[in-house]
Amino acid sequence: MRPSDPARKDAPLLPPVAEAATWPGFVAHRPPEVLRRQGRLPRPVSPTLLAALVAGLDVAAVVLAGMVLQYFPLERGYPQPPLLAFFAALTVSLAGFAGGYSHAALFGGRRPIVAALGGLVSGGIGLATAALVLGAPITFRPGAALLWMGMAAPLLLAGRLGSAAAMQALPQYTRQRAVLVGSGPQAARFAATLTGRHDQGLALLGLVDNDPAAATSSGGLAYLGPVATLDGMIRRGEVDQVVLCMPWAEERRVRDLQRKLSDYPVDVTLAPDLMAYRHDGAEAPRLLRLADRPIRGWAAVVKAAEDYSLALVALALAAVPMALIALAVKLDSPGPVLFRQRRTGFNNRDFSVFKFRTMYHHAADHTVQRQVVAGDPRVTRVGAILRRTSLDELPQIFNVLKGEMSFIGPRPHAPGTRAGGRPFEEVMARYAARHRVKPGLTGLAQVRGWRGPTETEDKLIRRVESDLEYIETWSPWLDLVILVRTLLAVARMRNAC
Hints:
The chain crosses the membrane at residues 49-71, 83-101, 113-140, 146-167, 308-329. It comes from Paracraurococcus lichenis. The chain has helices spanning 47-68, 81-97, 110-133, 142-169, 171-174, 184-193, 229-235, 251-261, 298-332, 381-389, 396-401, 424-427, 444-447, 457-472, 476-492, and strands at residues 176-182, 202-208, 223-225, 241-245, 267-270, 288-291, 338-344, 350-356, 406-408, 418-419, 422-423, 440-442. By secondary structure, it is an alpha/beta fold. A 6-stranded mixed beta sheet has the order 3-2-1-4-5-6. Helix 1 runs antiparallel to helix 4 (142-169), helix 2 crosses helix 3 and helix 3 (110-133) runs antiparallel to helix 4 (142-169). The longest helix has 35 residues, at 298-332.
């Protein structure tokens, strides 16, 4: 079918959508039937954690070989503990630079083994050469280095083969769940390459395409429905990667899909064109990365550690003030101390945010039909002080500890909130892109003054622009700057109501 055929145009990934309640099955890389839970694969372990486990095995191999070396009848030159740690770290670093810990490399093949052994040999030769150049052959003799490498190599190889076998035996926990988008022949050819040395570490759930006829030429891949089906699957957290399998000549369609999918918290890759499969002896087809999930990999580990550390420190410091605030709220007006409100969080999923109640109980606005403004008669006396100082948001520390929020990130909005009389989603086309990360207690938009009511569309646009800038440029340093500026803004009671 030609790219200009109107039947191939892709519908926007916006609700309402036709969600795939059950999946017909798996063909490529199909795990045992008993592993299917109502047609779903369980959420896999993070690729970063898997890579860390394999790197730990490599470190153990190098360190263990160095410790065994202590029992050999060498005259001198035994490796000391600092040297054991340095050589292990050097081996892992060099292997990592060679791609030895990429997700696909963890499932075996020649490349990761070459990378691991290459890191070991390069590191050992480098250490031995440095010892000779610096005049320290007594501390670390070249012969000891060669013996060390000789004992570490089989341990390293055994660890790699064992970990690869374990990951292949547990596909439901180790493989990234992938959905193919595009033409049947292209998808079928790509799926056929994901075997043996071409393993990409993917569990193929099936194919989506607006042309149902694509299923007949997809080589038996499960047809999940039209492209709009992806919206429901991604929102339910059932997809880790979307692979675009279509002729590269369909440039407009590829670009449209890339633009739509880049607003979702999934990896988007482009499979090779059909020409790339014509050489049987060629290297495994490489997936071209079009969009990555923000704050992924080790950055996600750092972000999670930062969130829980800050939340625990904040809770320890604010426990007594929060108790006093709760007492003041209770004495000021009848009703509960805490106010729960539905907000849109990560991946467009709703959750209940905690706040100290600042309005009279009978005037509580759970759906934000009318935003609070300065001098609002619905706000209590204590509530006015809490809102002005932002202390009403302290209970959201518990949302952070529950994993629903980050300490710093885009502020969560209530579903249906309007700006200038229009829903947020209608004001900005990329509004949903701010939900690719967890919402935060404070964020870049807030420290820039873009908080409070959104009477005009311009206020929302400025806020969302700051949120997207934060997502695309995140770093621990940026979080520190936002945290300091937030504390200063709270002390000055700026832009709150």
